[in-house]
Amino acid sequence: MIGKPHAKMALLQATALATLLSGAAHAQSESQAAETNTRAGLDTIVITARKVEENLQDVPIAVTALGGEQLKESQITDLSQIAGRVPSFTYQSQNSMESEIFIRGVGSVRLNGATADASVGTFIDEIYIGRRGSATPPIFDLERLEVLRGPQGTLFGKNVVGGALSLVTAKPQFEFGGGGYVSYGNYNTIHASGHVTGPITENVALRLALYQNRHDGYAENIVRNEELEDLESYAGRISLLWNLNDNMTLNLSADASTEEGGGPSRHSVDNPFVPGFGPVSPNLISQDPRTNESPYEQYARKETAGITARFEWDMGPVTATYLGAFRKGDGDARWTQAGAGAPPSLTDSTLTQLERHTGITQEIRFASAQDQRFRWLAGLYYLDDNTRRQSRNTAISFLPGGAGSTRDILDGDNEFFQVGVSKNYAAFGEVAYDITDDLTITAGGRYTIDKKTWDIEVVEYSLGPDGMDNIFSTAPVQGEYQVSTDDKWSEFTPKVTLDWRFADGKIAYLSAAKGFKGGGWQGGAANATAAETPYSPETAWTYEAGLKTDLFDNRVRFNLAAFYTDFKDLQVELLDDVNLVLVVANAADATIKGVEAEFQGKPHDYITIFASGSYLDAEYKNYIDPLRGIDYSGNQIQRTPEYQFNVGGNFEMPISNNVNFVANADYGYQAKMFYGPDNTNLEPGYGLLDLRAGIAAPDGSWSLQFYGRNMTDKLYRVSIIPFAGDEFSAFGAPRTYGVKFATSF
Predict the structure, then answer these.
(1) Do residues 114 and 418 touch, judged by C-beta distance below 8 A?
(2) Theoretical Cys-Cys bridge with 18: which of 180, 250, 684, 687, CB 3.0 to 4.6 Å?
(3) Which residues, 6 or more positions from 504, have their beta carbon under 8 angstroms from its beta carbon?
């Protein structure tokens, strides 16, 4: 791929960053201390999935936690990289502003409407991130990442129907320390991150974290001689911890990030099972899937920033917590939607998008002491989300035909202007009572009011190139229009859990929980009537039984969860093939049944092994496509493989008094997955293998490792846009490898 002239300068900057944050003296990393309390055998992981600190194994919720050190070791920088490590979790990406996260078959495809909500909520230090791409910063300097599966409608803000991704940033420490790493790999990859922390005064501690990640393009536009799927990303965070007195603490943090590149590449793949005008792919200049032939410039840029304040007051029997935050995200992208770049392709179409998002969060809650038989938590929540979104479709068709023909509706230039404002109010609470020393019942609920206003204007710039006798604008627009509308939805989402600690380190639980996601309006409606018609909220009841066990002197950990989810008015994205637009419609209902298992073992002091997997039976029931009257009942739910698994292990053995040999292997497999409810376009099953090996200090003060991702160079797709018998596909990253040096003090 094409190199960048400043790659050497970036490498020098990254090396200087790691050197600055290194030191000869070493103490245990504070992030390690925060995330684990080492016992004989496996570590104890502390999480805050229920807003209080608890041992992961004591929490009656299906949750996977990845610690800060694990994230650093694996160089995980975005949510797509955890997909193979968490049961029932899948991730795809249309472009930099439209990522798709599904947990247990529940998720959102494209948030192309300014009022659309995600089914899986993303939270940073408990603050809800309203938009998937434009407002989501990179992952760096975390204490841990928690993935909660199933509805979390009681304690988590906004409308969490499918699950929650909770990112907990590392906190300032009153003991001076720091650490950092720098890596260099193929595609001129330079990845570095570092932090330093310590006391400013007797009562104030500070933490500064910096991040850089860049690489050349994995794909190339051979028409314009430009690289695509490249990255240039920087981020920073500063955090302050102030102990106001013995009972009051104030945490303040501010972060910012910037990211840019050529954006995703799409390459045409013929679908032999769907008739069309004829395959586009044989007409391409190159059959290499890592090539793109669009005549248009493509790019992806975004900036994020946020300020969060957290105040805690321990009043003895009650602790009060206040959370206030402001977050913003700006994104710009242009990408080829369905074009081959030169005749005789069907059409050259490019989509230019701009999104500006701001979110203001206010939350106050009170919690009783946790060391008593009866415990409770209650609070109030407010979220003000504002999203401005522009989407411009410019297309030129090479099909024959005149006015009113198929060619006509594939020629033209139009733009959608949207403003969506969502105000979310909620009151929530949860109580727990120890019926006996080993049996506890927990019940809670959240009452949510979701108010939304929406304004959209559609402008036609052109009906096609000069000299054409077109009468239509390019699909889906049937004509210019302007709509202003609003609506309100409300819902009570209860949850009840019974957990039984039947032996030391062993817990079984039963739970029932309801999830809710608000309604909204189409982001690309063909006319005013369709634009002002909202789609309804979706609700789901999930019933779950689980088992968590620590066995054999804490050297084996086995967790199991089985669940049944019953959806009402499931929001489904489907293709309106008359107006050539993706729309959100409510399926009648759907059911999802599944089993998830997670295993960790330490058979020897040098060896740790792990495995996880899930099996899902996810299908639509009584679902008639409202656009075409097609019966999809019994079809597999989109973006949901029937099964997936992950296996691997860590090995660490002394080779001298001062040096250990370290190695890691991680393999994840995902079964075939359908991209739409019609079960026509699919991605076959595939597996990805990651490896690491090197040397490290026994006390963890430094390490030098070689790493490799997707070591078999598997070609797999992360997005499919079906069009006229072809699949315009975006592919996952190829094999990447390099060397990484890390240090801490």
Answers:
(1) yes
(2) 180
(3) none
